[in-house]
Each structure stands twice: as structure tokens, then as C-alpha cells.
Design goal:
Number of helices: 25
Oligomer: single chain
Number of strands: 16
Radius of gyration: 32 Å
Strand content: 15-25%
Helix content: 40-55%
Shape: elongated
Length: 601
């Protein structure tokens, strides 16, 4: 295993490149601030004299304004270069300007600074990377979580600090660098390469192909795609030399990066798919199966192959099995499932029954058969579109014990009509977190979930549901409201599944009026069953449905009136003009306008 993580190699290679671009002699005196207990820069610049000021000293230096003079007590231009790699975030906000002025004073040639380009909304892939680090026993890179403890700096904020410190704008080179998702992929591979021989050539590839050719082109990215901010400023107008090293044509840069990813696609693919090593770790920690996938089916032979494929394609670091709860299908649903079972090592469990149980009783026996920590539900005509869906949900729930369940955004798609839209949509769209908490009151007011195939539950929660509930009409809405009494419900803000709307669906085949009347009837039952805990939200929900029904009635009445008017208009051609004139004189102006509008159409 390498002593330096890849993300550290990247930032030190950048620092070396910047110094080499501005070098004026064979041996320079350099200060690195924020090196902690490491002295990695010396490995990249072995001929230079390097002094280190670690983060601990830096924190002590922030105790009061005078401390800087004690810890950085150097005369003007004492060092040729000052290097600050991902350490500016550690300086208190009200001390940053003094800090910049100090390092600008003690540097003779130039300063090289890198900063974390962090996001409030960490990507799911980033969250997954944390999970891999956790399983492998390696420390998590600071660049993932450091921004949560310190005020965020963007490139403009850093440049503004420099301007306030009276650094000449013509001597500043600033840019966003390192493609974030590529860095995550490479970091995943680094973990695996350190644990298994399957990626033994990883470090050679990174050294020869990325660090020596792609790294210096992986710059000039849009802010939302990059992992780091890089700023170089000089004291002797040598910024032009640095620009030659780092400023590349953006179009050729993108081509080079894309070519690199394509060239090593199989290696990248291995890093995300072949997780045998981590499954061994996960299984040791979690037992035989961490999750049961409950596959609920009834006469869905037309869809089941595609549905099951989306389950079998899931990539996880834990084992899971599939519990098939078929409710006596009369078509080929079960035989198709058994055919597909032969093509995978994922174990299947079939629940027997000799007669149709109905939806709720079928779910009841499926929940009782589960023996893992978590339960994911897949209905026989839906789809999971994200191969990491299960992994993302389990990682989230493992870290959020306050949640009884999680679900994800989903696409409601009518394959017959070709329409599609995303559910649920939240009004507070400015919230950049990748998840949102909901409770029972939220679910009673609006059935945000609406589809079992988006849900993952703690097994203990589903097994705690009262038996009486399974004899009631309806299932997913009431189930989730009851679950919400045992913990928060979290929505992962990313569409990861498809709810299929089709003419053969039990629910989707009904028209809007039938659906609304069924929901109103269910609300009255649910309100009583939940001891009026959600009465106000249920009432608001019911009012909206009744308004929709009323609107539908008014629309029909208006259509009938318009048809009558059109008929009368046609008849008027056969009446003497005097009768038509008298009718117009007696008709109220408002009605006359409606008649005129209708007749014109």
C-alpha cells in the first residue's frame, strides 16, 4: 500500500509543478503551512530546504492576533515559496486577511494555495466512497468532511482576500481543478488496489497515465464539477511561467480526460462492480444477508423479466436475497422468475400458497418471512434505474438511526402514452441536502411516497406493524404512515426507480374519479385507525380531492351547456330573424358573451 493517498499525491504534484514553473535556482527555501505531522512535500522536492508549520501550530497561532508573530516570526521575503494545501479553511474567518498578508510578506517569489471545493449537497457516490473507506479500515480523506466544520470558501472569496491584501490582480492565477467524479472513481480503485491483487497495476497506471499527462489538463472545470480550487500568486511577475504550465486549451483538455476514462474503462468498471472483497468484510460484519428484497407479483409476466433484471443488476458490498411473494399468478410470472434465478448466484426464496390471498395478506406473509436487517420492496411491474440504489439506501440508513425507513424520488412513466414526470417534488427546492426528512403529518397531507418499490425499511419496523392493519383496504400509504410513528421517513433526493403506469395495473387502470373517491373513503378509515392523530392533514387532503371532483363536475356541466348553445345556434338559422333578435335583447349580457364565445368556436 502506498504511504500517500492519491488525493494527496494530486495536490503535492500540483505544488511541485507550480514551484518548478517559477524556479530561479537549484535550491529554494520553502515553507509549507498545514502539513500536520507529514512532510510529504519533501518527497516531491528533495533538493529544496523545506520547513513545516503544521495545523496544530496554526490553530495555536489563531488564539490571538499576536500569536502570528510568535509562530511565523520571519523577516520579509524569508522564504522563496510558501505552500498552503487545503489549510486555509482551518484559519478562522476573521483571521484570514491577516494570514494572507503575513504569507504574502514572507514569500519572495510566490505562494501556492489549494482549497477544498466543497458542496452542501455531497454526491451519493461520495457517500458511497466514505462507506468503502469505513469497511476497509482506512481513514477518510479530509477533503470530504472538512467543510462541515469550517466556513466555506469559493474561488471568488479567495481572490477577494488577495485583493484586500493588495496583491496585484495581474499576478494571480486561479482556477477550479480535478474532476470530482473522476477523483472519486480513482479513490475507489485506490482502496481496492490496497486490499486485493485484482487492481495491482493501479498505482502504475495512475503514475504513468494520470499524474504525468492528465493531471495538468484536469483544470479549468466548472465549479460544480471540480474537487479543488487552486490559486498561485507571485511577487516577481513570474506568473506567466506558471500559466504556461497550467493553462491548457479547454477542448483538448476535455478530450484528454475523456480518453483517459475510456482507456481505463474496464479498470474503472471493476472498481464499481467487482466488490467481492468488500462483500467478505460486509458479510463478516452483517451476517449472511443484510437485506431482503421482497418481490411481490401477480400476473405480471409481461413486465417481470425487466423488473427482475433491475434487481439482479444491483451492486452492493453486502449480500441480499430475493423473497418471491407471488399471489397465485395464472400466467408465466413465476416460471420466468425461476428461469432468471438460474442465471445468478443471488439466492431466491419462494413463499408457497394454494389460493389468492389479496394484496395486504400477501405483503403480511412476505414481511413475516424476512430475516435480514433491512427490507426493500419491488412490485412486479416497476423498475430500479440506479445500480447503486440499494447500496445508497443501506449506507444512508446505517448512518441515520433516527430514520425508520427511506425512499427515493421516482419517475412516474406511462409506457403506453409515452409520458413521464418525477415524484415527489418539494417546494423548498433551494435546500441542497441530498435527503429530506418527513413525518406522518407530511405523509397524511400528501402521499409523497405513493409506491412501495421506492422504499427500504428496517425489518424490525415492518414486523412491528399491527396485524389488524393488514385486513384494511389499501396498503402502501397506511403502511408508511404507521412506520412514520416509529421514526423519521427520509426521501433521498435522486430519481432511482420507475413506477410503471399501464392499463393492466390495479391502481393505474382506474380513472381519476375512481381514484379520488377511493382515497376519500380510505382517509376516513385511516383517520379513525390512527386515533385522529393526523386529522387536520387528512382533512386538507380530502378537501383537495373533493375540489378536484367538483371541478370535474363543473367541467362536464359547462360542456353540456356549450353543446346546447351550439345546437340552438344551428337552429337559429332556420328561424325568422325577428325571433333571434328578440332572444338577444332578452338575454343577459354575461350569457350573451358566453354564447358569442361558444358560437365563434
Amino acid at each position: 500500500m502506498k504511504d500517500i493517498f492519491f488525493h494527496q499525491i494530486v495536490k503535492y504534484t500540483y505544488a511541485k509543478q507550480g514551484i518548478e514553473a517559477m524556479r530561479t535556482q537549484e535550491k529554494h527555501r520553502i515553507l509549507e503551512i498545514g502539513a500536520d505531522s507529514c512532510s510529504n512535500l519533501g518527497e516531491y522536492l528533495p533538493d529544496d530546504t523545506i520547513m513545516y508549520l503544521d495545523v496544530t501550530s496554526l490553530d495555536m497561532a489563531q488564539a490571538d492576533a499576536g500569536s502570528y508573530k510568535e509562530d511565523i516570526l520571519y523577516e520579509d521575503e524569508y522564504f522563496d515559496f510558501v505552500v498552503i494545501l487545503d489549510a486555509l479553511e482551518s484559519v478562522k474567518e476573521d483571521k484570514r486577511l491577516d494570514f494572507i498578508k503575513t504569507i504574502n510578506r514572507i514569500a519572495k517569489i510566490g505562494i501556492i494555495l489549494s482549497s477544498l471545493n466543497c458542496f452542501v449537497n455531497d454526491s451519493f457516490e461520495g457517500e458511497l466512497l466514505k462507506y468503502f473507506y469505513k469497511l476497509s479500515g482506512q481513514p477518510m480523506p479530509l477533503w470530504f468532511d472538512k467543510h462541515k466544520d469550517y466556513p466555506h470558501l469559493d474561488k471568488d472569496a479567495i481572490v477577494m482576500l488577495l485583493e484586500k491584501a493588495e496583491v496585484n490582480d495581474n499576478c494571480i492565477l486561479s482556477y477550479y481543478g480535478i474532476k470530482r467524479d473522476l477523483l472519486i472513481k480513482i479513490s475507489l480503485l485506490e482502496i481496492m488496489a490496497s486490499q486485493t491483487e485484482a487492481c495491482s497495476n493501479f498505482f502504475d497506471i495512475m503514475d504513468s497515465d494520470y499524474l504525468h499527462s492528465i493531471l495538468y489538463q484536469d483544470i479549468g472545470l466548472p465549479a460544480d464539477l471540480s474537487a479543488r480550487i487552486y490559486v498561485i500568486w507571485t511577487k516577481n511577475n513570474s506568473i506567466g511561467k506558471a500559466k504556461k504550465q497550467f493553462c491548457q486549451d479547454s477542448q483538448s483538455m476535455r478530450k484528454a480526460i475523456d480518453s483517459f476514462e475510456e482507456k481505463h474503462l474496464e479498470l474503472m468498471k471493476w472498481g464499481l462492480i467487482n466488490l467481492d472483497y468488500f462483500k467478505k468484510i460486509g458479510n463478516t460484519k452483517f451476517g449472511k444477508n443484510k437485506l431482503n428484497v421482497v418481490l411481490v407479483t401477480y400476473n405480471q409476466a409481461k413486465f417481470i423479466r425487466q423488473t427482475l433484471e433491475s434487481v439482479l443488476n444491483q451492486q452492493t458490498v453486502f449480500n441480499y436475497n430475493i423473497i418471491v411473494a407471488d399471489d397465485c399468478s395464472t400466467d408465466d410470472t413465476v416460471s420466468i422468475i425461476k428461469q432468471m434465478e438460474q442465471q445468478t448466484e443471488i439466492p431466491f426464496v419462494y413463499l408457497p400458497n394454494d389460493h389468492n390471498l389479496g394484496i395486504m395478506q400477501n405483503y403480511k406473509r412476505a414481511f413475516e418471512a424476512c430475516d435480514a436487517e433491512y427490507i426493500a420492496i419491488m412490485e412486479g411491474d416497476d423498475l430500479w434505474t440506479d445500480k447503486l440504489r440499494l447500496q445508497k439506501h443501506i449506507y444512508f440508513l446505517d448512518g441515520h438511526w433516527e430514520c425508520a425507513m427511506s425512499f427515493n424520488q421516482y419517475v412516474v412513466k406511462n409506457f403506453e402514452e409515452g409520458t413521464a414526470f418525477i415524484q415527489p417534488k418539494f417546494s423548498d427546492s433551494k435546500d441542497k441536502k441530498y435527503f429530506k426528512y418527513l413525518d406522518g403529518h407530511d405523509l397524511a397531507y400528501t402521499n409523497y411516497i405513493g409506491n412501495f418499490s421506492t422504499c427500504v425499511y428496517r425489518s424490525s419496523v415492518l414486523k412491528s406493524l399491527p396485524e389488524q392493519m393488514f385486513s384494511m383496504k389499501g396498503y402502501d400509504w397506511l403502511t408508511n404512515i404507521m412506520v412514520s410513528r416509529m421514526g423519521y421517513v427520509a426521501c433521498l433526493i435522486q430519481p432511482m426507480s420507475i413506477y410503471r403506469v399501464h392499463s393492466h395495473g390495479t391502481w393505474s387502470s382506474q380513472n381519476d374519479k375512481e381514484k379520488n373517491l377511493a382515497i376519500i373513503e380510505a382517509i376516513e378509515i385511516y383517520d379513525e385507525y390512527t386515533d385522529k392523530e393526523f386529522t387536520s392533514e387528512f382533512a386538507a387532503h380530502k378537501l383537495r380531492l373533493r375540489m378536484q371532483l367538483q371541478t370535474g363536475k363543473l367541467y362536464k356541466i359547462k360542456a353540456i351547456i356549450k353543446n346546447v348553445i351550439r345546437g340552438c345556434y344551428k337552429i337559429s338559422f332556420y328561424l325568422p330573424s325577428i325571433f333571434v333578435h328578440i332572444i338577444k335583447l332578452l338575454m343577459p349580457p354575461v350569457i350573451l358573451d358566453i354564447v358569442s364565445e361558444t358560437c365563434e368556436r
